[in-house]
Amino acid sequence: MKCPACSKPMIVLEIEDVEIDHCVGCGGVWLDAGELELLLEKASNRNELMATLSRDIEGKEKRIRCPICSKRLEKVRYGTDKKLVLDKCPRNDGLWFDRGELCDVLQMGQFTSGKPVYDILNEIFGDKCQNSLSE
Ligand SMILES: [Zn+2]
Ligand SMILES: [Zn+2]
After folding, report:
1. Which of 2, 7, 46, 96 has its CA 20 to 30 A from that of 73?
2. Paired residues of 12 in beta bridges
3. pTM of the model
C-alpha cells in the first residue's frame, strides 16, 4: 500500500496481532477499521475514547485520500478535550494518523493490564513518539 500523504510505500508492523501500516517517509500510520479498538483493548476508557470521535466540519488541514477507496478522508476530532484531529475514511475503511498522532491517542488510554501497546509503539517509533509528546 502506498502512503496517502506522501506516496511512499508503507511497511506493515504487527503489534499484538494488530497490523498497522506505517510510512517510513512521513511517519504516518494507517489503521484499518476496528484496529484502533483492538489497540485500545486494554485501555480502561476505551469505549469512552471511541465515543469522543466526532466529525469536524471546519477542519482546515489539507485533506488526503483513503489508500483503500481513494475517497477524500474526513476530519474527525478525537479525545476528551477534542484537540486531536484525525482523518477518517467516509466509507469507514479506516483511520489515518499523522506522525506521532497514534502515540497521542494511545497515551489517552488509561491502560490497566498487560503491556500497554503504547510502550511497544514507543520502542518501534522511538524518538517520533517522544517528540510528539514533548512538542
Ligand atoms: Zn508518508
Ligand atoms: Zn476508504
Report:
1. 46
2. 21
3. 0.86
